[in-house]
Design brief:
Number of strands: 13
Radius of gyration: 18 Å
Distance between the termini: 19 Å
Number of helices: 3
Structural class: mainly beta
Strand order of the largest sheet: 4-3-7-10-11-6-5
Largest sheet: 7 strands, antiparallel
Strand content: 35-45%
Helix content: 10-25%
Shape: globular
Order of helices and strands: EHEEEEEHEHEEEEEE
């Protein structure tokens, strides 16, 4: 379901949940997930080639620019991901930034163990990494470093190339739903 996100009108009401500012309250995963769902994120596909030449990839919403000089980005794959070890071993990857009309493509890449590239049009980038057709932009990277981030890794990529492929509204994730930001 795609939703247009617009400013909400919120009535002031007391919360039945304990305040996270309460020093006796221990933050639980559900509390973190609930609070973080109030932050709108873009959605991207991270793609790479396995040693045998097969494409692999995963959907992420934890993607960000880190530095302009040198040009670095990051994304945060879960340690439980079966795709992340393949991308890490490849050492090169692409970030494919999705448009609001690519929700089904995102769902296809979010399914563990599925053939994520079934029916997907892509071309190899300058370093051979899969660049998905129809995305808003592509960013080609070399894996620069991997840091510990609790139950996720923090993957830093050194940008080696990029291209804006088309104009359009991004696919965003907010309050556990895909949507778009109205213009």
């Amino acid at each position: 379901m795609t939703t247009a996100f617009a400013p909400a009108q919120h009535a002031s009401r007391p919360s039945s949940r304990p305040s996270l500012a309460d020093p006796d309250h221990r933050v639980q995963g559900a509390d973190m997930r609930s609070a973080m769902s109030s932050f709108c994120t873009g959605v991207a596909l991270i793609t790479a080639l396995e040693p045998d030449g097969r494409p692999t990839g995963m959907a992420v919403q934890s993607f960000s620019s880190v530095s302009l000089d040198p040009p670095l980005i990051c994304f945060c794959p879960a340690h439980t991901s079966s795709t992340w070890p393949k991308i890490r071993a490849a050492g090169r990857f692409a970030v494919n930034i999705l448009g609001h009309d690519q929700q089904e493509l995102c769902r296809q890449f979010a399914v563990p163990g599925a053939d994520k590239f079934a029916g997907v049009d892509w071309t190899p980038g300058a370093q051979g990494v899969p660049l998905i057709a129809g995305v808003l932009a592509t960013i080609e990277c070399e894996l620069a470093d991997v840091l510990d981030g609790g139950d996720h890794a923090i993957a830093l990529g050194r940008v080696t190339g990029m291209e804006v492929r088309r104009e359009g509204e991004p696919l965003v994730f907010f309050r556990r739903a895909y949507g778009r930001v109205p213009q």
